[in-house]
Amino acid sequence: MSRLAVRALLAVVFWPSLFFFWFLGPFVFFLLSTTSSEVCPRLETRAEFLGAANGALPMLVLQNLIYAVPIVCLVLWSRLLPEPARTSRVVTCIKLFAVAAILGALWEYGSSLVCDGYGQPFFSPAWRMTGYLPIANLVVNIPLYLLVFSLGRAFSMRDDDPTADAVHPDGNAS
User: Fold this and answer.
1) Contact, 112 vs 30, CB < 8 A?
2) 35 vs 55: CA distance, rounded Å
3) How far apart are CA 88 and CA 44, in angstroms?
4) Distance of CA 35 to the CA centre of its chain
5) Contact 174, 164 (CB under 8 A)
6) Is 96 in contact with 146 (CB distance < 8 Å)?
7) What distance, in Å, lies between the first and last C-alpha atoms of the chain?
8) Nearest to 137 by CA among 69, 36, 64
9) What's the sign of the alpha-carbon dihedral 85, 86, 91, 93?
10) Is the whole-model pTM more than 0.70?
C-alpha cells in the first residue's frame, strides 16, 4: 500500500472521528457516563451512590478510548511522515489529551457521586468542587482542539506537487 493511500485512509478515520467523537460526542457521552437524573432521587445511602457512580466507570473508559482515535491517527501519521516539529506537537497533543481525559473523568465521576445534589451529604466537599472542572477542561481542550485540527490538516494535505502528476491537454505528463 502506498504512503499516499495510508495517509488517505488515516484521513478517512481522523476527520469523522474528530467531528463526531470530539464535537458531538461529549453531549451524548456525558449523559451515558453519569448517573441519570431520574435515578438520583431514588438513591438513599452512600453505598448506592458509590454503586451508581462506579457503574458509570466502564462508560468513562470506553469514552476515553473512543476520544483517543484522532490522537492515534496523529501518532500513526507522525510515524509515517517523521518530521521533528510535527512529532513534538503530537507529543504535546498526547499530554494535553491525557490531562483532558483525567479532568473529564474526574468531573463525570464527581457528577455521578454528587448526583444532582442528592449525594452531597455522603461525600467530601472536594467532590462538589468537581463541578468546576469543566472550566479547567475547557482551558485544556481549546488548545488541544486547535492543535489536533491543525496537525490533522497538515498531515492530510499532500506534500508533493500535484501539478507534477497533472496530465496536460496534449496527453503528455508534465
Assistant:
1) no
2) 8
3) 49
4) 21
5) yes
6) no
7) 25
8) 64
9) positive
10) yes
Which residues have a Cβ under 8 Å from the Cβ of 34 and sit 6 or more positions away? 56, 108, 111, 112
Strands (E) located in the chain: none
In one letter, which amino acid is 97? F
Residues 163, 168: Cα–Cα separation, whole Å: 10
Burial class (CB in 10 A: 0-12, 13-18, 19+), 73: buried
CA distance 119 to 41: 9
- Output the nine-digit C-alpha cell for 155: 498531515
CB-CB contact of 19 with 71 (8 Å): no
- For residue 87, give the C-alpha cell: 512529532
Amino acid present at 152: G
Amino acid identity for residue 101 in this structure = A
Provide the residue-wise pLDDT of the chain in tens; the chain has 174 residues.
688 888 888 888 988 888 888 777 666 666 666 667 777 888 888 898 899 889 888 888 888 898 899 999 999 999 988 889 999 999 999 999 999 999 988 988 888 888 877 888 888 888 888 888 889 988 999 999 999 999 999 888 866 545 544 555 665 554
Q: 3-class SS at 83?
A: coil
